[in-house]
Design a protein that fits this description.
Blueprint lengths: L8 H6 L5 E6 L3 E7 L5 E8 L4 H15 L18 E6 L2 E3 L4 E3 L13 H8 L5 E5 H13 L5 E6 L3 E7 L2 E2 L31 H4 L1 H7 L8 H10 L3 H24 L4 E5 L7 H14 L4 H6 L5 E3 L6 H7 L8
Helix pairs in contact: 2-3, 4-11, 7-8, 8-9
This protein binds zinc ion.
Length: 329
């Protein structure tokens, strides 16, 4: 359970008695939702992300104010006089959810020091409790809410890096040191490429979005995956080879999740998920090929469990709004 930073204590902020706001703060945009106690999305907003701690806190506070402003004539249960019960924030970087601090959020221009983001936003919002969590973890919570209510789920984020958020029994799995789900740094090849983490041959060096762009440096920045899958779909043999090798590495990441957590669903997310159905098909084909000689692997039916994040849905913001809410009994 995430510790509250300020405010009215675990009962008020951890309960289901008011509107909760979730924010997904990324390098280009801040996406926010207001959730009713029953999980209904009451409002959904997007705003561009500025750079620097103060500017991001101000922009986040403006999105919260916008989300909780009473629409004219609706009698909605929010308004300027009714602050949200709690605000949950998903943010990239090294997040300490207990302290509410963020480190290494280079895309937001936060510099190298750890930033007490939760406290800063809470103060800016007049003491509303703010809970802060890693962006991959809130995506996992949101995916469970939207795709698999009640089931255990792993969200595999295929972005610049490779990491998974795991929800077991409705609760985020963090582990003793917060490293649960960091399968991108499983070193699979001692002769492989050096990884920024200091090891060599990490899964992230072959299965992430960045790895895909290294292997297929075509298309616009951030669109290499679409370019690769389109070229492979059109029959370009070089693209087919790159796609299949990369998909085999992603399939290994999926198998790692299946064999450590055994979730009912493994959801593919992150920037590469914009590829859509061809991504799911390529990874499923790799999983089938890898299980060919193993009745054990075939019996796990891992390829039947993979799906994609629905495009355009505010998954991470919904997950952020659920931070601190007790799992259904
Ligand atoms: Zn690594």
């Amino acid at each position: 359970m995430t510790t509250l930073l300020t405010g009215r204590g675990p009962t008020a902020a951890g309960g289901r008695d008011g509107v909760r706001v979730g924010l997904d703060i990324g390098g280009t945009k801040i996406e926010g939702v207001a959730l009713a106690p029953d999980g209904t999305v009451l409002a959904h907003r997007r705003a561009p992300s500025p750079e620097g701690v103060r500017a991001v806190v101000d922009a986040a506070a403006a999105v919260v104010a916008d989300l909780t402003r009473e629409p004219p004539g609706t009698g909605a249960p929010t308004g300027p006089g009714r602050p949200p019960t709690a605000v949950g924030v998903g943010i990239p970087g090294l997040v300490d959810p207990v302290a509410g601090t963020v480190g290494d959020a280079v895309n937001l221009g936060f510099g190298t020091a750890r930033v007490p983001f939760g406290r800063a936003l809470s103060e800016r919002l007049g003491g509303v409790p703010v809970l802060v969590e890693n962006d991959v973890n809130v995506s996992a919570l949101g995916a469970r809410e939207l795709l698999a209510p009640g089931g255990d789920l792993a969200l595999l984020s295929l972005g610049t890096g490779l990491a998974a958020g795991v929800v077991v029994g409705g609760v985020l799995l963090r582990g003793a040191r917060g490293a649960a789900g960091e399968i991108g740094h499983l070193a699979i090849d001692p002769r492989g490429r050096a990884c920024p983490c200091g090891q060599r041959g990490c899964l992230e060096t072959v299965a992430s979005g960045a790895a895909l762009r290294r292997a297929w440096p075509h298309g616009d920045e951030g669109r290499s995956a679409e370019h690769l899958f389109a070229a492979a779909g059109a029959g370009d043999p070089a693209a087919v080879a790159v796609r299949d090798e990369w998909a085999a590495a992603v399939a290994l990441a999926v198998r790692t999740l299946a064999l450590t957590c055994d979730p009912e669903r493994v959801v593919l997310g992150g920037g590469v998920a914009a590829v859509g159905a061809p991504l799911r098909e390529a990874v499923a084909a790799a999983l089938r090929a890898q299980a060919t000689g193993s009745a054990f692997l075939r019996g796990l039916a891992v390829e039947d469990r993979i799906s994609l994040l629905p495009p355009g849905a505010p998954v991470a913001a919904v997950g952020a709004a659920r931070l601190g809410v007790p799992a259904p009994g």
